[in-house]
Design goal:
two-stranded antiparallel ribbon; 1 helix; alpha+beta
């Protein structure tokens, strides 16, 4: 399993943040996945009332 570790300091919290990225996820085509996921989220949020 190939993982890439990225470390940086957050400008907001001034703390070190560590991200671990699985290289297998690079093969996912986000142009195909994103519209389907957006449609799923919109369907799930249908009828939800937000506080004012």
């Amino acid at each position: 399993m190939e993982k890439k570790i990225i470390k940086f300091t957050s400008e907001i919290s001034k703390k070190e943040i560590t991200l671990t990225v699985d290289e297998r996820l690079n093969s996912i085509d986000e142009k195909k996945v994103a519209p389907r996921k957006l449609a799923e989220v919109n369907e799930a949020l249908k009828g939800v009332k937000l506080p004012r």
